[in-house]
Amino acid sequence: QVQLMESGGGLVQAGGSLRLSCVASRSTFSANHMGWYRQAPGKQRELVAIITIGGSTNYADSVKGRFTISRDSAKNTVYLQMNSLKPEDTAVYYCNIQPPLRAFWGQGTQVTVSS
C-alpha cells in the first residue's frame, strides 16, 4: 500500500519554477510532520524543507527564500514550490514524514535544472 506519492518533477532552465506534490494517506498526513528531501549526484540525501503538524516551516539554507513548503489538508497533499531554480538544485526529490521512516521512501521525482 502506497503511503506517499511524489510528482511534479521535470526539466527546467535555470531561473525557472516547478511545484512538487506529495499525496499522503489521511492518517499519515494528520499524524506526522512532513519533509521534502533531495539527493543530488555524488551527495547524500539531505533535508530541504519541513512543515510541522502545527504548520510551522523550516528550510535548508541553500533553498531559503526560493522554496516554499505548504500543505492542503483537504487533499492530504504537501507541496514544494520551487522558484529561481539553479543547476545545483538538480536532484531526485522525495517526501517522507519527518523524521523519515525508511519504509516510506518512494521513487521520488527527478528535478533537472539546466544552465
Total beta strands = 10
Could you report the average pLDDT, rounded to the nearest whole number? 96
Give the neighbour order of strands across the main sheet: 2-10-9-4-5-6
Gyration radius over CA: 13 Å
Percent of residues in β-strands: over 45%
Structural class: mainly beta
Uncertain residue segments: none
Tell the overall outline: globular
By DSSP (H or I, 4+ residues per run), the number of helices equals 1
SSE string: EEEHEEEEEEE
What is the rounded distance between the termini?
A: 38 Å
Task: Please describe the biggest sheet, giving its number of strands, its sense, and whether it closes into a barrel.
Answer: 6 strands, mixed
Give the helix level as a range of percent. Answer: under 10%
Describe this structure in words.
It is a single chain. It is globular, with a radius of gyration of 13 Å. The model has no long low-confidence stretch (mean pLDDT 96). 27% of the residues are buried. With 115 residues, it is mainly beta. The chain is 5% helix and 50% strand. Strands 2-10-9-4-5-6 form a six-stranded mixed beta sheet.
Which terms summarize this structure?
115 residues, mainly beta, 1 helix, globular
Concise description?
The protein is mostly beta strands and 115 residues long. The chain has one helix at 26-31, and strands at 4-7, 10-13, 18-24, 33-39, 46-51, 57-59, 67-72, 77-82, 91-98, 109-114.
